[in-house]
């Protein structure tokens, strides 16, 4: 067996605030394997974003251990092990779509022709070929979110950390992006950690669904999905899908009950 891509052992993070300590994460233990698509679902404040930020070295845990690709999050960050996609697309309005995707490559010192090739490749991957010279405001919200995914993919990181990337989009656009994201995951075999509030989104996308509950933020259930890798959208009407969705809902309810 290969080592997990992300391994958390009794991970805890307590924020000291003026109102006293906030236990954002408490004793979280989880292994994410290579090629997994893991969704984190739970009510507001259960620590989903904090967990993702620990993986990305944007927060420092106060207890336990976490490794990314077998090393510390800091070393993984320096090795550009992951791309991070935020809730809002976060594109610079004064740069074109191509310019936005190019920015991290410029910072990392890639040569100009390598930059060009990478920009074209990731624009193709997210089906935005031809939009390189447009500015963000000329694109719909869904297209902007795809551009921000392209930016996270541009330097070929094996891990994609996505914090509610489609939360602000309407349902039809979200369905379409979910489908595209699954195809992209299938093509590239990346490991994806994905935060969401939506049960159907979590069940549709994931190989593993991590249910969390707040106060203190912890994992209450980990569901290994029996669904096949290839998933047309209408898989959501099948009994298998509905059964998993029920289990997630039950887990969320139980978490609320003792919160
Ligand atoms: N920098 C901080 N300082 C103090 N408390 C914080 C900080 N960041 C997060 N928290 C608290 O930690 C808890 C977990 O927050 P987190 O953002 O990880 O939750 P979440 O599950 O991602 O929520 P949401 O679904 O609303 O995004 C919350 O109670 C939050 O208020």
TrEMBL record:
Q: Which SUPFAM superfamilies match?
A: P-loop containing nucleoside triphosphate hydrolases
Q: Which UniProt keywords apply?
A: ATP-binding, Nucleotide-binding, Transport
GO MF term list: ATP binding; ATP hydrolysis activity
Task: Please state every residue range assigned to the domain named ABC transporter.
Answer: 6-239
InterPro entries under this entry?
AAA+_ATPase, ABC_transporter-like_ATP-bd, ABC_transporter-like_CS, ABC_transporter_ATP-bind, P-loop_NTPase
* UniProt superkingdom: Bacteria
PANTHER family according to UniProt: ALIPHATIC SULFONATES IMPORT ATP-BINDING PROTEIN SSUB (PTHR42788:SF13), TAURINE IMPORT ATP-BINDING PROTEIN-RELATED (PTHR42788)
Q: Which family is annotated?
A: Belongs to the ABC transporter superfamily.
Recorded protein name is ABC transporter, ATP-binding protein
**Source organism of this protein record:** Roseovarius nubinhibens (strain ATCC BAA-591 / DSM 15170 / ISM)
């Amino acid at each position: 067996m290969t080592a997990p891509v992300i391994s958390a052992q009794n991970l805890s993070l307590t924020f000291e605030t003026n109102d006293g300590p906030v236990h954002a994460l408490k004793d979280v233990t989880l292994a994410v394997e290579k090629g997994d698509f893991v969704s984190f679902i739970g009510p507001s404040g259960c620590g989903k974003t904090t967990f993702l930020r620990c993986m990305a070295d944007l927060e420092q845990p106060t207890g336990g251990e976490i490794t990314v690709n077998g090393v510390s999050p800091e070393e993984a960050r320096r090795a550009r092990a992951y791309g991070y996609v935020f809730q809002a697309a976060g594109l610079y309005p004064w740069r074109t779509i191509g310019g936005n995707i190019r920015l991290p490559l410029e910072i990392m010192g890639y040569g100009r022709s390598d930059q060009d090739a990478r920009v074209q490749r990731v624009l193709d991957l997210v089906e935005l070929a031809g939009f390189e010279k447009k500015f963000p405001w000329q694109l719909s919200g869904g297209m902007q979110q795809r551009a921000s995914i392209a930016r996270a993919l541009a330097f070929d990181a094996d891990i994609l950390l996505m914090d509610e990337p489609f939360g602000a989009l309407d349902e039809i656009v979200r369905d379409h992006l979910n489908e595209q994201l699954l195809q992209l995951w299938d093509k590239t075999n990346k490991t994806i950690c994905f935060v969401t509030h939506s049960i159907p989104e979590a069940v549709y996308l994931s190989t593993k669904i991590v249910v969390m509950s707040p106060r203190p933020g912890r994992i209450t259930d980990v569901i290994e999905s029996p669904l096949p890798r290839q998933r047309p959208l209408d898989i959501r009407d099948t009994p298998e899908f509905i059964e998993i969705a029920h289990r997630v809902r039950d887990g969320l309810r139980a978490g609320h009950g003792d919160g």
